[in-house]
């Protein structure tokens, strides 16, 4: 049976799933969700995902939302030997911590700072920007002496974080002033399988959306 992914190309969480699928050499049946025309609010979509968010994965009768749950599920089912989500408890705990940091701190703070500007025409909030930069300082500390976010090898933590951090390129946030973040960013861009196809194309779509909304 095909693995269906309901997605929007510009979405950072969706791009994290696409990056993971490429790293696992999985073919996903991509189903574009038209948020502008409310497809995510239709009964058939709400049946799959009552949160009416993207991405949503459907695999052999399992409907799963939340990108970080999706990417760990995909590795657990289709790529246990890949190293992307280590089975050793300490190594896995570190990956989980980075994933929770991404959704609960880094991406959350970016969303609270940037999305009101894009979708509601709000002015930039200096206090919220300071919180984003504080999160980047924390990420920079995590990366001290580390090639990747959770150790010596590429994991789903990197794939989730790179989808988030790359989105900052559409904003005025200068994440490259943090030296460890900059080094890590360039490393993941060149070592994550299918990075250009799985992330760069969607990032370009996100940038185009931001530019159109700000006009």
Automatic annotation (TrEMBL):
Residue ranges of domain GST N-terminal in the record: 1-82
Subunit composition and interactions: Homodimer.
The GST C-terminal domain, residue ranges: 88-215
GO biological process: glutathione metabolic process
Record GO terms (molecular function): glutathione transferase activity
Protein name per UniProt: Glutathione S-transferase
Cross-referenced PANTHER family: GLUTATHIONE S TRANSFERASE D10, ISOFORM A-RELATED
Domain of life: Eukaryota
InterPro entries: Glutathione-S-Trfase_C-like, Glutathione-S-Trfase_C_sf, Glutathione_S-Trfase, Glutathione_S-Trfase_N, GST_C, Thioredoxin-like_sf
Record Pfam families: GST_C, GST_N_3
Lineage: Eukaryota, Metazoa, Ecdysozoa, Arthropoda, Hexapoda
